[in-house]
Predict the structure.
Amino acid sequence: MAIVGGAGFIGHHLALRLTSMGAVVHVIDGLQVNNLGYYNSRYVDDPRAGLYLQFINERLLLLRSAGATLHILDAREYGLVSNTLSAIEPDIIIHLAAIAHANRSNKDPYSTFDHSMRTLENVLDTIRSRGTQLLFFSSSMVYGDFHSSSVAEDAPCNPKGIYGALKLGAEKLVQAYGEVFGTPYTIIRPSALYGERCVSRRVGQAFIENALDGENLTINGDGSDSLDFTYIDDLVSGVVATLGNELAVNEIFNITYGNARPINDLATTVQSRFANIKLQYLEKDSLMPERGTLDISKARDVLGYAPAFPIELGMLRYIDWYMELQHISSQ
């Protein structure tokens, strides 16, 4: 099995779960996008760069300890990808290589295309006639504005901004290879992920880090917007249920917690551990779609998917991890 972009947040969690199950896992990653190369760059002015390098180095240590093989290469280079995958001969490829942040995608569309679409095309072209199952990570952003309280996989997709547009385009490319070459695929649509060793500073991570620093929790909008917050362990369980599963071939699955919660609820959960922290409301980003619950009925019925972490469990576990990390660092 190969995970392209496997040293990232989602990828390393997947690799650790899979190796614990006895799988032989090869991680392919250039360690540049949101990784070691980025945070080691002298051009990066991020006060948390040192902390994030600690997270990333811990990922790599855990991967090494678990027995996963790391191939450091740029997935934008066709020859490198093709030769490496040909040597590995994986029966399953999980494709995660991408710019994993909507705001960064809108600010730098060229780099987003280069690291997202070009890497995917290289993988697809390498395996197009081999019968290798490709699992592609898309996003709930492909739906754009939700026009009902929940959306199923067959809902219309009208993404807003560069990130969502490229994710939908990538889905179409994956499906086209399936039609033309018979390449078996599974498409995953996650939402609002959070969990240990993330460096993307998604909303939950930003809340915790601000709280630890004694800063306000900043919210874009009035906090009533709802997101289907999903703890990383639930996502990994859903993905594992698709691998090698004939029922998952050529299918799309929402893999989320399956119950959207207002951002204010997430903030309140953080405040339960940091009682003196205040909320600060800012102007909402016009390019962020109105979202809500992703219907996970299909994943429940077909895969037996059963998410177990509402924010009251997953977010508190995440906070405890940060606080333990801070305690160790202060010793």
Notes: The domain at 2-191+229-256+294-308 is CATH 3.40.50.720 (Rossmann fold). The chain has twelve helices and 15 strands.
